[in-house]
TrEMBL record:
The protein's name: histidine kinase
GO molecular function terms listed in the Swiss-Prot or TrEMBL record: ATP binding; phosphorelay sensor kinase activity; protein dimerization activity
Pfam families linked: HisKA_3
Keyword Transmembrane assigned: yes
Source organism: Micromonospora viridifaciens
Amino acid sequence: MTSAAAPEYPWLLPGALASPTKVARRTTRDWLVDSHCFLLALGWLLVAVADARRPAPEIALNTGPAWLIPVDTVLGVVACGSLWLRRRWPVGLAVALLPLALVSATAAVALLIVVFTVVVHRPFPIAAALVGAYLVTTVVFNQLRPDPVMPFWLAMVWTTVITGLVMAWGMFVRARRQLVLSLRDRAERAEAEQQLRVAQARQLERTRIAREMHDVLAHRISLLSLHAGALEFRPDAPPEEIARAAGVIRGSAYSVLQDLREVIGVLRTDTDGGESPVPERPQPTLADVPALIEESRVAGVRVTVSDLVAAPETVPAAVGRSAYRIVQEGLTNARKHAAGTAVAIRLAGAPGDGLTVEIRNRWPVGDVPGPGIPGAGTGLVGIGERVNLAGGRLEYGRDDSGDFRLAAWLPWPA
């Protein structure tokens, strides 16, 4: 049970029976209810005492010996005062006041309130046992102090009916409170589950952003390294080439900073559940592959393309984005690990047959000149996960001819 429900109905918690003394402090509503119960019991006490002192004792309420009237008054005051303890020790108080039900008429309402408290706060077996005990005491009471205007059997019927009504009312109140707690618990659990789903969606989105950033940054940083290496090994290049390479470096660096700014902004605003103030840039599709290839050609990579895709405009966006990332990863790996080699890209497919993406480059011979471009070694792992999630197949490694081959098949519904 949640902590929010505990202060209002602590007796309905699972541990209430094991440690009944652990109750919450009275609320304003509890003070009002307890005050009304005390005043109601005290009012009955005054009515009973006044009735017992009437001039015609032969018709007074449950008369008895003269000494019994002050004793009964004292017992009634004790019963009324003990009502302030009924929330902390309902069962113990009911058992302690049980002997009063044998002789006291002034404590009748206070005893009914205690019985009602037990029915509301404790399980049915305990409440039923105490109610049965109180009904037994009424038999003795009606024998010791018979009503002067009502036969014994009619007095017992009235007593049983009133006690039964009090017990039924208490059971109704207990059932209603349990229902309220159950509904509140369900609402809080649903809210917690919704927050968990939001957190999971947020984590999945962060993971997706991390994958996208790996692909994008690895591609752009490899271009930066390639152009910077060209400037390092050819310091005597014509000014036009140097200017063109510097422009490419500047543009790639600016794009990298843009991407980093986007992902940092998303991660910052994501912590409080808000939306990013900067709209996410459109994701690349199959139509952006030619621009990606041209970017590598400008960087000096020899790329040949065989495009056999039928109706490329009908390729689903998710499939086209995966194809773009596969080509991007193949070009990045070729620049990292096989600098100077030619790269062959083949795209083929049709609706219903699937989309095939193949990138092939010669295996490098000897050491790569200059310092190698560091990598995390997770690019192909991420591509493999992306392809698996799309329901496709991925193959990579050296083939029989000695070339490195990266090939993927992606489903393309008809």
